[in-house]
C-alpha cells in the first residue's frame, strides 16, 4: 500500500492509504459501511488491504449498528464508514445510540474538498457540527499530517473512561494528498482510569458493613467487572438489581438476583428498593425508566455511587459517598474491607416480598405465547448464545424472560431505544463471534426499519 521513500525509514502514503494503514495498526479486521463519492479514495485503499474485511450494509444506520454489534460483544472499538451528506446523516441515529449506551465506535466519513466546505457543495452537510452533541469527541481533518495523531487519539478516547463514539470527518482532498513519514504514533489504547482516594473506599465499606437492608444496583458501567460484582454480592449478601443494560451481570437464577428494577421490573423489586437503608450504585445513571419519580426513589436509603464518569455523580440523586473510578478497580480495594454477613432478616423480608409480588410471566410454558416462545428459544441454545433485540414490547418480554447469565450476552438499544437496532447488531455480533449462536428477537415494525 505505502511506497518506500528516499530512505529505508521513510514511508510514502496518500491520505486514504494512511487511514487504512493506521486502522490495520489498531488491529481492525472488519469495517462496516457504504461507499460514496467523497470516501472513494479510502475505499480504493481498503480494497488493497489483506487484513481488513469490508461489510457492505444496506443503509448507513445499519452499518453503525453492525459496528455496535461487534463493539458490544468484544468490548473494544469497532469502525463504520460512510460518505458525506446523506451518508453521514444516515449514521447519526446509530452514533447517538452508541453515545447513550457508552459503546466505543470510531466513525469515519468522507467530506467535500476542504476548499468547498461552507459553499453548499453537492452532498455537503456540516458533519462536524451535527455530530458534536452525539459523540464523545469529533474531528474535521484539515491536513493529511493530522491523520496519524487523530486516528490514534480517536481509538484512545473511544475506549477510555466512559466509552463512546468518536467521529472523524475527512475531506476528499485530504484523502488524495500525499505525505512521507518516518514514524507513526503508537496505536491508541485505553488510558488509565481516574485515581480515587482510599478514604472514600473505607467510608463506603463502613456504610455497607453497618447497613441492615442494603441493595446493590448495577448499571451498564459494570460490564468489565462480572467476577468482582459477584464476589461483593455474595460476601455481603446483597440483593442485587440491574438496569436493562446490566442484565446478565448476575445470572438470572442466582438467589441474590432481583432482576430489573423500574417500570418493567418485578413489583417485588421496586418494593424491596423502597425498604432499603443503603443503595450501592455501580456504573448506573439513575435513568428515569429505572427510578421513576426521583424524590420518591429509595427515600430512606443512603447512597454510595461509583462511576467512571464524574458528570453522573450527583446528577440525579445526591450520593452520601461518591467515587469516580473504574468499578473493577474500586471493588478490588472495597471487597477486602467488607465483612461477610448473613443478613438473615433482610433476606427473609426480600423472599417474602418476592412471594407476595412475583414477576408476572403469563403462559411461560406455552410456545405460542410471547413469553413461552422466548423460553422455547432459550431451551434450544446453550449459555454462550448472544441475544439481540429491537425496541418495543418484545424487548421487555425478552429482558424479563430470557435466562441471561453472562456479560456481553445481551445486546439491546437501552438509552435511545432505536427500532431497527436488533438485526444489524446481530449481524455484527455474528461476524465478531462466528463460533457462537446469535438470536435476534424483533417486532414487525422494527424488522421493517
Automatic annotation (TrEMBL):
Domain Thiamine pyrophosphate enzyme N-terminal TPP-binding: 14-128
The protein's name in its UniProt record: Acetolactate synthase
Gene Ontology BP annotations: isoleucine biosynthetic process; L-valine biosynthetic process
Gene3D superfamilies: 3.40.50.970, TPP-binding domain (3.40.50.1220)
Keywords in alphabetical order: Amino-acid biosynthesis, Branched-chain amino acid biosynthesis, Magnesium, Metal-binding, Thiamine pyrophosphate, Transferase
Cellular component per GO, a single term: acetolactate synthase complex
Pathway: Amino-acid biosynthesis; L-isoleucine biosynthesis; L-isoleucine from 2-oxobutanoate: step 1/4; Polyol metabolism; (R,R)-butane-2,3-diol biosynthesis; (R,R)-butane-2,3-diol from pyruvate: step 1/3; Amino-acid biosynthesis; L-valine biosynthesis; L-valine from pyruvate: step 1/4
Catalytic activity as recorded in UniProt: 2 pyruvate + H(+) = (2S)-2-acetolactate + CO2
Database matches in PROSITE patterns: TPP_ENZYMES
Cofactor note: Binds 1 thiamine pyrophosphate per subunit. Binds 1 Mg(2+) ion per subunit.
Source organism of the structure: Klebsiella variicola
Membrane listed as a keyword: no
Cofactor: thiamine diphosphate; Mg(2+)
The EC number(s) this enzyme carries: 2.2.1.6
Stretches assigned to coiled coil: none
Domain (Thiamine pyrophosphate enzyme central): residue spans on this chain: 201-334
